[in-house]
Amino acid sequence: MSSTHCFHCAEPMPADVQLLARVGASVHAVCCIGCQAAVEWIATLGLQEYYRLRDTPAGRAVPVDDYAAWDRPQVQRLHVRRHADGSAEACVLVEGLRCAACSWLIERALRDVPGVRDVGVNPAARRLRIEWSPNTISLSEILVRLARLGYVPHPINAEALDALGQREERAALKRLVVAGLGMMQSMMYAVALYAGAFEGMNSSTRDFFRWIGLLVTTPVMVYAAPVFFVGAWREWRTRQLGMDTPVALAIGLVYLASIFETLRGGSQVYFDSASMFVFLLLSGRYLEMHARHRAADVVDALARLQPALAQRHAASGALETVGVHELETGDTVVVAAGAAIPADGVLLSANCPVDESLLTGESASRERHAGETLIAGSIARSGPIQLRVVHIGAETVLSSIVRLATRAQQQRPHWAQLGDRFAARFVAGVLTLSLATACVWLLVDPSRAFAATLAVLVVSCPCAFALSAPTALTRAMAVLARQGVLVLKPDALEKLVRANHFVFDKTGTLTHNRLELVEVMVLSNRPVDACLRLAAQLEQANTHPIALAIRAATAASNSAQPAALRNVAGAGVEGEIDGHLYRLGRDSFAAALGQASTIGADDDVVLADSSGTLARFTFRETLRDDAMTTLAVLRRDGATVEILSGDSLTRVASLAVRLGVADYRARISPAAKLERLQALRGSGAIIAMVGDGVNDAPVLAGADVAIALGGGAQLAQSSADIVLAGDRLGALIDARTLALRTLRILRQNVYWAVGYNFILIPLAAMGWISPWFAAIGMSTSSLLVILNALRIAVPRKAVAATAPAAEIAATARSVPA
Amino acid sequence: MNIILVLIPLSLMLLVTSVWAFFWGVNNAQFDDLETPALMPLSDDPLPVPETDDSGEST
């Protein structure tokens, strides 16, 4: 690593920092005291090997916090599980745990600590399970050790210890292995039987091999295959034919027929086919389950972002550390710089940059002002700040996001429903066909009837129909969620691709809800700077867009508060600076001090003193950074772009010109917007409406696909199909690209399923496919469909632009030391 | 051919043993993390540990 980058976290070195960390004989440059401490601590433990093993740089180390609050019984009740033998167990979410080398480091560093009994790290889930004896060491001491390595530990609920997903995964793995081993063994005996059939084998040896085959297949049937039998039984009870019915029927038939043949000493047994079928199907399901769990991880990651502890102002005025579940509405909490906000609350301190990457996927922090609502899970970048708790627990925005995401994942999109319905009809068809095959072959050649019927049952692959849509869509939704795009209705993805007419709202969608100062027209002999400074001084305490724009335009912050400051709602502000009375505001208001000047637009703001107008400020809305490119890409892709706004014609027109949009309507009411949408739909356009999701709600409902742009509190009530939680318009393009890719993959899957089934089923009915080959074909087909769906991933380009939200959320908490 | 009467039961015993061993492994979290253990062989033996400064650990 060159010395321009930190040895520990590989971030660029700040110019003014010269810190060195000593590892053995060598010396490395590091960027902050936290990293220095981490490097030296790792070296002291003799674990510098870590720097060679890792493939991802570590997170920037934060100076170690005080973890003593974790030893409080109230907090431990929720997070620590006590065992009968006196030991305790906890599950810790480790921020900064990025690669296998990290888990190596953590395991090594903690395992030899006296009192720690067991350490288990799961790098995929970023979790650490620790078991320790509380008499020897306290939880906080363990957490401190972890923090000194440069990680930020967050104990999570003790329930996480027996995660459902893990249990499911383990059970599936066991079934898979039983089926696999059973398959190998029964195939060995099958090979012996085939060889015997050609070379001659006496019947007692043959029967011996068959019995052995039965012996090794039975565990497969009893332990691994019941998933299918149970599934088929469920389908039968609900009168819905699904994938499990033909599978269970085939497996059951093959197995029972083989037993019968074994007892009878008949011509052929199929133990190998049966166990192979089970094994291959189970591997398909295993992959599918993996994909599902990975999708669930996103929701999980969001849910875990809320901190577990909060600093509350007690009645006495002192600060006390309490568990977040102990907080109540109205409490005042203090959040330190770099800490996560424990509950939704109103900011009491002046202002603070807040990192809302959990919601937005964007790590750049956003300035929040007093009175604005901060959401739980976002991170205060400076501090300490004070916060009055407004929502707790399940009422927080974070919880509602989690609920929305969960709900969307549970809904069956119409593609999937279609797939299901088709699969059910397909299964019914296959069952009929196998019956017909059996009847025909019984008439023609009874000895081949069973094999042919079996082949039809086995080779047909309804899974390819039924699996393709859910796997592809689940995967797409998971990938999008990590980019800050929440798909609330799965059908929306399809419509987003088909949409050819994009209607944008203006304010808050194409523009930010803030203004920028474009021109200062000086109408007196004072310099521009002086006018600006006066204006900024007058607007110092205000937070409306004009005040912010003026303050942003003056570099220096002036602290002198004007005397006799007075706000006149809807008009302007008045104050006395250096003995002079000034007014800043609308023409009529400011001019009341002196004589009026009436040039310029209505939106302008005028600074005046008793001698008359001093300067006139012209503002315009700030365009979103990505508005231009987004519209350009949409137009390039052949979509029509239109702006509908309730704002004044001049503003909308100037914005439309800036963006190069020819089609715009200004000053139109929501009802008129809705009418316009209906007219467009009538003319055959498929409409995507992009709005900010709150005041647009009824209009959004009138579009084919409604896209809301917004973070924060609006999200929960949003009537949108897709939410660009990132507050980043460009995400629309990413979502569209990904949706396109998803549909393409879906289509490939359906083509494959149709082609495969229509070629192979007739062949099987003709008796040209033997059951074992049918088993391979069918399972390969399902596997292909699933693997194809897993190809849906973030396009390379977009990865660079926005790291996944969960990733950021987990890593962005480190603050400059 | 009588040898198969010995070999087959032997192989079945092996089978049972391997299934048992695998189950034990799964139940004891041996398969939860399939990445980290691959790194173990790459690490050197621990160096002679320099005197650990115990007083520093209580921060």
How does this structure look, described?
The complex is a heterodimer of chains A (817) and B (59). Chain A is of the alpha+beta class and 817 residues long. Among the domains of chain A are: 1-63, Ribosomal Protein L24e, Chain: T (Roll); 68-162, Alpha-Beta Plaits (2-Layer Sandwich), CATH 3.30.70; 309-395, Calcium-transporting ATPase, cytoplasmic transduction domain A (Distorted Sandwich), CATH 2.70.150; 476-511 and 624-738, HAD superfamily/HAD-like (Rossmann fold, 3-Layer(aba) Sandwich), CATH 3.40.50.1000. Chain A has 29 helices and 29 strands. In chain A, strand 27 (687-691), helix 24 and strand 28 form a beta-alpha-beta unit. Chain A starts with 18 loop residues before the first strand and ends in a 6-residue tail after the last helix. Chain B is mainly α and 59 residues long. Chain B is built from one helix and no strands.
Taking strands numbered 1, 2, ... along the chain, how are they ordered across the largest sheet of chain A? Answer: 17-29-28-27-18-25-26
Helix run count of chain B: 1
**So, CATH architecture of the domain at 476-511 and 624-738 in chain A?**
3-Layer(aba) Sandwich
CATH homology superfamily of the domain at 476-511 and 624-738 in chain A? HAD superfamily/HAD-like
Into which percent range does the helicity of residues of chain A fall? 40-55%
Low-confidence stretches of chain A: 797-817
SSE series of chain B: H
Unreliable segments of 5+ consecutive residues of chain B: 52-59
Q: What integer value in Å does the Rg of chain B equal?
A: 23 Å
Quaternary:
heterodimer
Kindly report how far apart the N and C termini of chain A lie: 21 Å
Span between N and C termini of chain B?
73 Å
- What structural class do helix, strand and pairing data of chain B support? mainly alpha
Largest interface: A-B, 34 and 31 residues
Task: Report the major sheet of chain B.
Answer: none
Shape of chain A: globular
What number is the mean pLDDT of chain A? 75
Total strands of chain A: the figure is 29
What would CATH call the class of the domain at 476-511 and 624-738 in chain A? Alpha Beta
Main sheet makeup of chain A: 7 strands, mixed
